[in-house]
């Protein structure tokens, strides 16, 4: 598509500029193969999804580029995430199809809000960050879709991040916060909360000896999910096992993921 061609030309031009700008340039390339086995809710059968990923990081400081490609189940290789950035006077600036700055929950089964932000301009300075999302730069580079703000405070025993998302179309705000304690005797605690459409949602998590457990819900349903996961490394292979229990539907959702990095 036209938009994709424009983006690829921009990235290739930027990478070329970095290559010519410095003799000490070195690109870092990481490749991975991930196979996830999980139940298909529609067929009640367990299916395997294989994702091949290639991440490229080029340059640092004054000029840098990040590219994330992936191919799912042998399909076409696509550019999943990308950014071009720079650092000026301790201010980091990046533009691309990148993650926003709104806080995230630990699990994939919570009611924690996930405001969508596509192509964005992100600025960060110390503990503060702002992301300005655009609707479609190929039609109007001035049309802002949403704005996200985040501010982090690192205390002696706990780190706290507050965040906000403002959607220009709906003119609605979403609020979020996240805390993480330092690890004490092998135990770390964390929690995420969000407030959207007059509904307060939460998730609490704890990590002990490589196991991460969580519970979540919202003000209308205080206990929605309970889950636990574990990651184990074996000579370059990561085995991730996860189990979620939906309290309302009384349904167990297990999954196993094998990841190879090279």
Parts with pLDDT < 50 across at least 5 consecutive residues: 19-24
Span between N and C termini?
32 Å
**Cross-sheet strand order for the largest sheet:** 1-2-3-4-5-6-7-8-9-10-11-12-13-14-15-16
Largest sheet: 16 strands, antiparallel, barrel
Whole-angstrom Rg: 20 Å
Q: Work out the helix count.
A: 1
The proportion of residues in beta strands is over 45%
How would you summarize this macromolecular structure in one to three sentences?
This protein has 262 residues and is mainly beta.
Report on this model:
- It is a single chain.
- The protein is mostly beta strands and 262 residues long.
- It is 8% helix and 66% strand.
- The protein is built from one helix and 16 strands.
- It has a 16-stranded antiparallel barrel with strand order 1-2-3-4-5-6-7-8-9-10-11-12-13-14-15-16.
- Strand 15 and strand 16 form a beta hairpin.
- It starts with a helix and ends with a strand.
Keyphrases for this structure?
mainly beta, 66% strand, 16-stranded antiparallel barrel, 262 residues, 16 strands, single chain
Chart the SSEs and their pairings.
Blueprint: H1 2-21, E1 27-40, E2 45-60, E3 63-72, E4 78-88, E5 91-97, E6 119-125, E7 128-136, E8 140-154, E9 158-167, E10 172-181, E11 187-196, E12 199-208, E13 211-218, E14 221-234, E15 237-246, E16 251-261
Antiparallel strand pairs: 1-2, 1-16, 2-3, 3-4, 4-5, 5-6, 6-7, 7-8, 8-9, 9-10, 10-11, 11-12, 12-13, 13-14, 14-15, 15-16
């Amino acid at each position: 598509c036209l938009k994709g061609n424009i983006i690829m030309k921009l990235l290739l031009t930027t990478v070329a500029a970095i290559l010519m700008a410095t003799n000490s340039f070195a690109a870092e390339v990481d490749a991975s193969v991930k196979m996830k086995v999980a139940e298909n809710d529609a067929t009640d059968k367990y299916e395997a999804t294989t994702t091949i990923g290639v991440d490229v990081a080029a340059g640092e400081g004054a000029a840098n580029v990040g590219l994330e490609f992936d191919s799912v189940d042998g399909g076409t290789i696509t550019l999943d995430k990308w950014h071009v950035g720079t650092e000026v006077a301790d201010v980091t600036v990046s533009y691309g199809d990148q993650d926003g700055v709104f806080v995230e929950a630990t699990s994939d089964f919570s009611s924690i809000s996930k405001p969508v932000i596509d192509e964005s301009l992100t600025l960060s300075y110390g503990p503060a960050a702002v992301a300005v999302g655009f609707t479609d730069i190929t039609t109007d580079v001035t049309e802002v879709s949403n704005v996200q703000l985040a501010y982090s405070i690192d205390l002696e025993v706990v780190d706290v991040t507050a965040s906000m998302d403002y959607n220009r179309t709906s003119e609605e705000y979403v609020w979020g916060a996240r805390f993480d304690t330092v690890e004490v005797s092998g135990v770390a605690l964390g929690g995420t909360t969000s407030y959207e459409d007059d509904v307060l949602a939460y998730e609490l998590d704890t990590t002990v000896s490589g196991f991460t457990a969580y519970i979540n819900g919202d003000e209308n349903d205080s206990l929605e999910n309970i889950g636990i996961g574990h990651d184990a490394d074996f000579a370059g292979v990561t085995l991730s096992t996860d189990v979620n229990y939906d309290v309302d539907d009384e349904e167990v959702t297990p999954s196993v993921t094998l990841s190879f990095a090279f």
